Amino acid sequence: MLLVEDDEFVRLALTRALNRTGVFAVMPAEHGERALELLGEHQVDAILTDLQMPVMDGLTLLGHLLERGVRTPVAVMTGQRITPELAEQLQRFGIAATFTKPVELSALADELQRSLSPTTVGRITGVTLFGFLQLLEVERKTALIVVHSGNEEGRLYFDSGALVHAETRRLRGLAAVNEVVGWPDPRLEIFYRRTARDRTIDQPLQQVLMEAAQLLDERGRGLEPADEVRPVAAQRPDLQEALDEAMEIDGALGVALVDGGSGMSLGVAGGSAGLNVELAAAGAADFVRAKLRVMAALGTKDTLEDVMITLGQQYHLIRFVGPELKVFLYLVLDREGANLGMARHRLAAIGRGIRV
User: Fold this and answer.
1) Are residues 78 and 147 both part of a single domain?
2) pLDDT less than 70: residues of the chain
3) Range of the domain at 169
């Protein structure tokens, strides 16, 4: 990205900050004339320019770009008030984004990435925060997750699948994670390739999420049903024995006890390189929530005991534990080696032995 800014302090600060995001490699210029020289020597993907500069100001630079037929996305920043006349001028130049100085660096980086590199930004709906964070770990993504809830905003940074930093307006590190996971109705925005300047978290993601879930439960914080988290694993010392028993069912490939609200696996047995049980369980939780919403919309008063998903080579069985449909056993079976009727019977018996 070509950065055009006459104030040396601002130019250096923006260059360092934007370089640290991992998305932009910044090439600085002190005025419009120098920017045109650099454009003649280098290929750039985006331009961010000030408007008020000596030698050649930003509007004159924009005019030259228009004359040359440059189609590179351009954003502008200015310390002057944006009048209707100035806004009309900028619109004629097809400006991608406009910022008023002084700029807040994290907000600037977010909006620049949205405007100048839209293919690296996505908005996520219909999944739980817990399940989505686990997916980032499995896929080993480097990204910034911005979580919005009401007027709150939290930022979670991943580096190759590891959660390395978190912050809200008041907190940093693990304290910020514990706050963000308790927010109701979160809206997620993902900025790929963004890296963290700070490293405040070194624990494995599963440990961080389980501790956050435990804190929520201890504080008795009321969450929406879709986001409620109950760490039941600690309530049954012989949980692993129950999961191991489920793995003795003919054809069993993997099994998990799953919190339906968060998609977190509270205990796992089996699995293989081709079957990530925790990831599959998080997807099953999304499936269950969708089914429950449909039942509610239809006004269905009946109870939901279990769910079966039939694939070409596998059966996926979901058996609820307890009357509230908050926790379920998730069992994956090989179709060739499984007796479906017996598997459902044994899974139900194992579920009745688990206290929630």
Assistant:
1) no
2) 125-127, 217-237, 356
3) 122-223
